[in-house]
Amino acid sequence: MNRLETVFRDSYGGIGANRFLLPHAISEVQYIIKRLHSIVRILFPFLDGSDQDVTAIGLTRLGDADPDDYLCINSGYTLLHPLVFQRIYPSLKMLYILHHVDDDKEYSRGTEFLSQMDDERLLHFIHFPQNLCKTILGKEDNTVLEDLENAAIVLQRMNTLYAPGEFLDLFRVAFQQLSNIQQLSCDVLLPSVVFIVVKAGLSHLGAYLHYLTDFAYTEPADEYTLVTYEAAYNFIRKQGALT
Amino acid sequence: MAARTGGGGSLQVKVVLLGEGCVGKTSIVLRYVQNQFNDKHIQTLQASFLQKNLTINRRRLCLNIWDTAGQERYHALGPIYYRDSHAAIVVYDITDEDSFTKAKNWVRELRKMLGDSCVLVIVGNKSDLEKNKVIQEKDAQEYAASVGAKHFYTSAKQNKGIEEMFLDLSKRLLEKEGNNSNPSSTNPSSTRRPGGITVTDDSIRTDRPSGGGGGGGGGCCG
């Protein structure tokens, strides 16, 4: 693994980093994960089930996972990703950032533009549903605003993560902060996500979302989550392009 | 995009809900999946992403229903939501002519972006407000036929027409997917419906909101 890390870093990181290398880096990472996964399967030949079964059962039998962790370990991806990405993520992240430098500039301008607004103007601008706006701005009940701010604080941890599964967990935790908001249909959810992304002041969101699209093991609900963030990102980026 | 087969052999399909705000998109799907309706339209569960499992003629189907934002401000983000959809439900309010015009815009856009690959249903919601109806049935039916869609009237408030609409949608989806049938286990709660279709409501986990999955790992339709 150390050698793999060195080779990857020397190939794609440092001063030689170039956005055109991204597709090659992605193929290489996918190849590394596939090979490591084969090794896991060789080590546990008696577990000749599906990819998911092999890693989940294997870990449980080794005693490395307690019952709670077992629920989280549902695929080879969740097992191998932390091991692999911990080592190569800095170089890979830089390539994604370079690849999205123009889009993310617009997005940053959009974030700046929107974050200059006070809460009331921002909520109106992003067409937060009127009835909830009244609740929030009426100062009768500030819990909604608190929930949104707490979700934004959760999102700020994004810069400290590296494994795709951790990002998805973060999104889940952020959504849990919003679960007290009534009628969380998409009419509410999308403006809420725009709001929390602006408040969180995330940089390079486009790069992160592209990375997750490439590597995250997603279930349908996760796909919906990612699309919601992508929609919020595009909305903010559009505001940046207009300013 | 071809529907994929998920765990347990059920067919995973993506159904997107489109329409102007306040036409009742979310109410329809909540009524269908959770049999809920509240006049004040208040519910505490997240309602943006819902799943419904069905067994139709021994073939299992998992509807992943994606809500979209109805605000005009977010209209341009539509393609992000409906790309790769297998079916679309375009909802309008029968008492609001503007919502019907918006529905037509959605249909035009969908056909342009997805071609004929997407199973399309046009829904006139709030049929309980018949006396305030401004969109005539004949016009709506003719329009739906002209774009290769089916038209339904629903009332989320009175729970009318919703089951039929989703059943028709599911049958058309299965027809489209051909004969990749997956016999399911016998379920005693099956009900026989007119026309010889056996429909089993596998009901099930429905309140898994966007991002609320935790680490279940079991997929939606196990």
What does this 3D model show about the protein?
The complex is a heterodimer of chains A (243) and B (222). With 243 residues, chain A is mainly α. Helices cover 74% and strands 0% of the residues of chain A. Chain A is built from 13 helices and no strands. Chain A is globular. Chain B is an alpha/beta fold and 222 residues long. Chain B has a single domain, classed as Rossmann fold (3-Layer(aba) Sandwich), CATH 3.40.50. Chain B is 26% helix and 23% strand. In chain B, strand 8 and strand 9 form a beta hairpin. The longest helix of chain B is centred in the middle third of the chain and has 18 residues. The C terminus of chain B is likely disordered. The interface between A and B is large, with 41 and 42 residues. Chain B: One of its GO terms (biological process) is Rab protein signal transduction. Chain B: Keywords: GTP-binding, Lipoprotein, Membrane, Nucleotide-binding, Prenylation, Protein transport, Transport.
